[in-house]
Amino acid sequence: MKAVVLAEIGASHVLKVEDDRLAPEPAANEVCVEIEYAGINFVDVYQRTGLYALELPAVAGREGAGVVRKVGDTAAQETDVKVGDKVAVFAQGAYAQYVCAEATHVLKLGRDISTKLGAAMMLQGLTAWTLVRDAHEVQRGEWVLVRAAAGGTGGLVSQMAKHLGAQVIGTASTPGKCSIAKANGCDFVINHEETNVEAEVLRLTDQLGCHAVFSGVGRATFGADLNCTRRKGTLVTYGNSSGPIEAFRPLQLSGKNLKLVRPTLANYIKDRGEFDLRSAELVNLVSTGAVKVNIGKVYGMDEVGKAQDELSQGLTTGKLLVRIS
After folding, report:
1. What are the residue boundaries of the Enoyl reductase (ER) domain, all occurrences included (predicted)?
2. Residue 131 is assigned to a structural domain of this protein
3. What is the CATH number of the domain that holds 290?
4. How far apart, in whole angstroms, are the C-alpha atoms of residue 23 and residue 96?
5. Fewer Cβ close by (within 10 Å): the C or N end of the chain?
6. Could you give the C-alpha distances from 39 to 66, 150, 170, 203, 261, in angstroms and in order?
7. Residue 261: pLDDT above 80?
8. Is the pLDDT assigned to residue 325 strictly greater than 80?
9. Where in the sequence is the domain holding 201, given as residue range(s)?
């Protein structure tokens, strides 16, 4: 099969397309899927640069969608997914024509959800939904700050927090991205290149700060994110787009009795019941139009390195995809 392979840690040029990679066979608890679209995510960048450990060489990519081609014996008993079904998967190796995923991480797509949309909503959609439901359960009337509210995950977090009844403040870096953040449901949008985010958040919230701050930025905004969180509030730091947070002292939380959460999606959907619950809720949000998945750009398999560079340099908006077949 054709696949994008990561053989060594390094810059985006280390990603290579191989035409003769051995196609995987599903284990008993797995489903084999012919991938049509895969999603580009920051986790792919973190794996390539060595921030997240990965046994190399490996096929890159963590999410995709396509058509089921084989179902393992145990998987057939655990799920109603059958050969020929359209599904989205959360599994390592999605930048390939075929990937095998554990049955617990295979989402059957309804008739009204294409594989393109399925690939776009899987990882970032579940990440965003578990952030606002599990990392901090957003309540009606709360003030919420969302960093990078024009991006893939940030845009979904903004929409979902608004859907749950919060007053949403979003940040973005350009007038165009501010407009996108506004369309994503933000009540207030701050251009962080022109305005002091911390001062503006405190002004909007009568100097109290936000009940929750959702930030995938990491190092560059961590201090301000803490300051934007109100007494007994929650800072959810879920990414490292500016680099990992370093030299943090837990005592920093005591001034306002803050809660600091560093979640990963995998630990919120570890068992089948958790995955089924949150994925069904996500599908309902998308199917009813309560949440819109904005696809920003679609790349070819030979452009995965370019896609990762554009993502990490802040040059994109919405969800980025790779067309596999």
Report:
1. 10-322
2. no
3. 3.90.180.10
4. 9
5. C
6. 12, 17, 24, 37, 25
7. yes
8. no
9. 136-262
Cα separation of 100 and 106, whole Å? 10
Judgement on whether residues 188 and 287 belong to the same structural domain of the protein: no
- pLDDT tens, 76-125? 888 889 999 999 999 999 999 999 999 988 999 988 899 999 999 999 99
Convert the pLDDT of each residue in 30-59 to its tens digit.
999 999 999 999 999 999 999 999 999 999
| CA distances (Å), origin 325, targets 18, 36, 190 | 15, 5, 39
State how far the Cα of 244 lies from the Cα of 235, in Å rounded to an integer.
Answer: 15
- Neighbour tally for 206: CB within 10 Å: 8
> Do 78 and 165 share a domain, yes or no?
no
Which of 242, 262, 282 lies at the terminal end of a domain, its last residue? Answer: 262
The domain tally of the chain equals: 2
Report which DSSP code applies to 256.
T
* Mean pLDDT to the nearest integer, 13-25: 96
Q: What is the pLDDT of residue 3?
A: 98
Sheet strands (E) in 41-159? 58-59, 63-71, 86-90, 98-102, 106-108, 143-146
C-alpha–C-alpha distance, residues 206 and 194, integer Å: 21
Residue 47 located in a structural domain: yes
User: Which residue, among 133, 128, 80, has the nearest Cα to 286 in the 3D structure?
Assistant: 128
Q: Is residue 298 part of a domain?
A: yes
163 within a domain of the structure (yes/no): yes
- Nearest-angstrom CA–CA distance, 96 and 124: 19
**Cβ-count burial 168-187 (b if 16+ within 10 Å, e if not):** bbbbbeeeebbebbbbbbbe
Give how far the C-alpha of residue 201 lies from the chain's centroid of Cα atoms, to the nearest Å: 25
